Amino acid sequence: MSISRACMDDGFNSELVRGAHFDGIFEIPHIEKPKELTLPEGFTPFTKRHRAPTDHEALCFFEFDGKFSDLLIEPERFVETANSFAVFVPPDCSLYRDQPFATQVCNVYRSRALGYYYQSHGANVYPLVRWGDERSYTDVMFPEPVAFAGIERNGVVVISTYGCIRGAENKRCFAEGVECMIDTLSPQLVLVHGPMPRQVFTHVISRAEFLQYPDWTARMRRGV
What we know:
It is a single chain. The protein is an alpha/beta fold and about 220 residues long. The chain contains 7 helices and 8 strands; from the N terminus they run ββββααβααβαβαβα. The chain has helices at about 70-75, 80-85, 100-120, 135, 170-185, 200, 215-220, and strands at about 20-25, 30, 40-45, 55-60, 85-90, 155-160, 190-195, 210-215. It has a 3-stranded parallel sheet with strand order 3-4-5, with no helix packed on it. Strands 6-7-8 form a 3-stranded parallel sheet, with no helix packed on it.
């Protein structure tokens, strides 16, 4: 009977970050800017990877974490998969405002570590920016926001509003995070997975180039 490998059995999968540079006080693995910019035609979730509508897709993980647990546990199995997509967006390890801060840092680390791992194995990685509560995207507690650590300035980033902007409070917090991301990273291009409501993006829409992509369900309904 096989026993699944736990994420911390070997030092939190330390082989993922062999040779990596680490950023900031939390030592988050660094993902380099892509050498050439490729615009994907759409975002395909990990569980739908065999149904990618085009040959120029971004592989993403905007779904329940358990659905991509195989990749988290055995990332080496999916190197070929990552390389077969035009863009690889690192796993969206969940961040919530009511999470303990330690787990928020942990999930930022895990996403960057996997992004670095697949980049070092040839994938075209566009870093995912995800934040939890204000401790993760401001300097209210620490001198630097962990949500943006490990990502180069003036590059391309991916964010997702999918499931994150329901209700006024969620919209307010997401808008704050987007503005702090622009202040910190000054990205040239932001790929947005999900809707872009005016009340969330109105203060930043002129400060970077934004490209909006529908989520998988909306895309399939439209037949695109």
